[in-house]
Design brief:
Blueprint lengths: L18 H5 L6 E2 L3 E5 L9 E5 L5 H15 L16 H9 L1 H15 L7 H9 L7 H16 L23 H9 L7 H17 L1 H12 L7 E4 L5 E5 L1 H27 L3 H5 L7 E6 L2 E10 L7 E7 L1 H17 L18 H5 L11 H17 L12 H8 L5 H6 L6 H13 L4 H8 L5 H8 L8 H9 L1 H24 L12 H16 L9 H11 L2 E4 L2 E4 L27 E2 L5 H16 L5 H18 L9
């Protein structure tokens, strides 16, 4: 018989001890022996909270599950695991976490049947799937398999639990180094603001705040006048001389490139812009002043280029430090006399973040202006500032070679740059999004910030992931309920006009198929009856929106259409007051009807599948699969899809 990989129990040190006692220092969240209240790390500003109850679970299962969830939800409190975790994706941990309640029952059943997890065989595994009466679906089966892998890879003892920066220090880095770890964990864990991003932001803002003073002294040297020493306040609050005349003469041109890099880094960090959006910021008149509650704020112009035939102008509401960075960079381009001879092809305008200025290269140098180079420029300026204690130390890798390098008086610059833990663009955007959306009225501010972007661009930042169902998700939906209601009303207005024209023409309205399509017809009929008794201006939809808004409360728009969420009717497994789109079953669920305004995409897909079924050059299996998928669309959407003869 084949033994599934549940070969040993964990010998962790969690048993009977709260995590705070184990670490010897306070940690965020509540980690009692039988109940864990896992909230976001104090630096990630996450509103997601998870409550895990281990009461009634056998001790050997409890310890293994605790180690697993430390690894899943607290990567900075990492355990020492074996290389069997190499290459595993975060979604595997999320699968186990989501199906914890069923997993504990399944593991207990297997333990009772086999006597111990180490003795579980393939026969026991098949009996659990077919004869246990538990009815595990494929998700619970996947959760059990994932736990089997992690249970085998768990450490025999928790011998290393410390607060350290995430990139490159976990045993997971064996799967390709620090860069691979960042890419793998990026979808689930933002940067730690205090440990990693905070020192970089402090250094970048320091260079931006003193940018005008540096340019003043550079212009003085160009006029053959003596440059005054630049006084700054160090990390201890003491006033010290950062640069004297000799310092300006020796590193003046290099320092300008570092200031330009800091301007780009600060702008990217506080706006969440992508590299393509940063390239599309125009050089002339990039800022626009507005008045918000008596305070002057700034809008930064850019252009949305990706996926559009004609670029669309964006306006980003930016904090004052970004306005300062833009002002410093505009002046720097004038001081260096960099001609705007390179136009951004999509917009036909000269870019603000000129590649030559950011890179500190000679005029005409053909280089790629990317955020990585800007961060490298900031790091070059930071080496001397960190050594002299003017700014806090930058995060570095945790290894003996790094410690030896930092112990030397003047480490080599290339070696010093190689040991730094540097943020990348995606980490900056995700951290920015999490911080903004967790503040009071943050979701509204976040949606306002990204409203000019494509939905797929903004959705990754502020839409709650289906696997993050918790009280925090319900609170988030309550915060944005009014915004969501406006979106639903916008969709209902267009669809109501289609329905009304069909009724007036005497044609049966092509309304959504599905189990609950009648509810939608009833809504439109009730609104139409009220409007028919009132004088009406065809071009004015204000009264129509008022009537539709009465029915729009509580309705969600998903990929498949309306969802008037009712937990008693939901088939998606959601119990927290909002649907889980990833598990949506619109052809069966009584909460759902299909929006006719989105039928075009389904029609195109259906036509493509039918063409595949007629293509005799395709393998028979592929044609059969295409036919099954086309039939599924026909079943879900009914007569809304125009079915051509096969």
């Amino acid at each position: 018989m084949t033994v599934i990989p549940l070969r040993r129990t964990s010998a962790s040190q969690f048993s009977g001890r709260p995590l705070a006692e184990l670490l010897g220092e306070p940690v965020s969240g509540v980690y009692d022996d039988d109940s864990w209240d896992i909230s976001g790390h104090r630096d990630t500003a996450s509103s997601v909270r998870r409550r895990l109850h281990f009461g009634g679970i056998p001790a050997h299962l409890r310890d293994a599950l605790k180690e697993l969830f430390i690894l899943a939800t607290r990567p900075f409190l990492h355990t020492k695991v074996t290389t069997e975790l190499t290459g595993r994706k975060p979604k595997d941990l999320k699968t186990v976490e989501r199906w914890l309640a069923g997993l504990t029952v399944d593991l207990a059943w297997l333990h009772q049947r086999a006597g111990s997890l180490a003795a579980v065989t393939q026969e026991d595994y098949d009996a659990w799937k077919d004869e246990s009466g538990l009815g595990p679906n494929y998700r619970r089966i996947s959760a059990l398999k994932s736990f089997a892998l992690y249970a085998r890879a768990m450490s025999p003892g928790v011998d290393r639990l410390t607060h350290e920066p995430w990139p490159g220090v976990s045993a997971l880095s064996l799967g390709g180094g620090a860069a691979a770890v960042r890419r793998r964990v990026n979808s689930t864990a933002p940067l730690s603001v205090a440990d990693v991003l905070g020192p970089w932001l402090t250094l970048g803002m320091f260079l931006v705040e003193h940018g005008h003073a540096i340019l003043d002294r550079h212009e003085a040297m160009q006029r053959n006048r003596a440059a005054q020493p630049l006084l700054v306040v160090d990390a201890q609050g003491r006033e010290v001389v950062w640069l004297d005349r000799d310092g300006f003469e020796s590193q003046g041109s290099e320092l300008l490139g570092q200031v330009a890099g800091a301007c780009l880094f600060v702008t990217a960090a506080f706006t969440g812009m992508r590299a393509t959006e940063l390239d599309a910021v125009p050089r002339h008149s990039p800022l626009e002043a507005i008045e918000v509650t008596g305070t002057t704020r700034w809008l930064l112009r850019s252009y949305l280029v990706k996926g559009l035939e004609r670029p669309r102008e964006e306006r980003w509401l930016v904090p004052p430090i970004v306005a300062d960075a833009v002002g410093v960079l505009i002046r720097l381009l004038d001081v260096k006399d960099v001609p705007p001879d390179r136009l951004f092809a999509a917009t036909g305008q000269a870019p603000l973040f000129d590649r030559r200025a950011v890179h500190g290269q000679r005029d005409g140098a053909r280089v790629t202006a990317r955020l990585e180079r800007a961060i490298d420029q900031v790091a070059r300026a930071g080496q001397d500032l960190v050594r002299r204690g003017i700014v806090p130390p930058l995060p570095v890798k945790d290894d003996p070679a790094t410690a030896a390098l930092l112990a030397s008086d003047r480490p080599d610059r290339a070696a010093w740059l190689a040991v730094l833990v540097k943020p990348d663009g995606r980490e900056l955007r995700r951290t920015f999004a999490r911080i903004v959306s967790a503040r009071p009225h943050g979701p509204q501010a976040a949606m306002e910030q990204f409203k000019w972007q494509h939905p797929e661009t903004a959705a990754g930042y502020f839409r709650v992931a289906p696997d993050a169902v918790a009280l925090g998700q319900r609170e988030l939906y309550e915060d944005v309920a009014e915004l969501y209601e406006n979106v639903v009303v916008d969709a209902m207005v267009d669809e109501f006009h289609v329905w009304e024209r069909a009724v007036e023409a005497g044609v049966g309205p092509r309304l959504p198929a599905g189990p609950d399509g009648r509810r939608k017809r009833d809504v439109f009929a009730a609104v139409h009856e009220v409007l028919s008794r009132e004088p009406r201006v065809e071009e004015d939809d204000r009264r129509l929106r008022v009537l539709l808004r009465q029915h729009a409360r509580g309705i969600r728009l998903t990929e498949f259409g309306w969802c008037d969420f009712d937990p008693d009717l939901a088939l998606c497994g959601a119990e927290e007051g909002t649907p889980l789109e990833s598990f949506c079953q619109p052809n069966r669920c009584l909460n759902h009807t299909t929006v006719s305004a989105t039928l075009a995409a389904h029609q195109v897909k259906h036509d493509r599948l039918l063409s595949l079924t007629r293509d005799r050059s395709m393998p028979k299996l592929a044609r059969e699969q295409a036919g099954e998928n086309a039939a599924l669309i026909e079943r879900d959407l009914g007569d809304l899809i125009e079915v051509q003869g096969r």
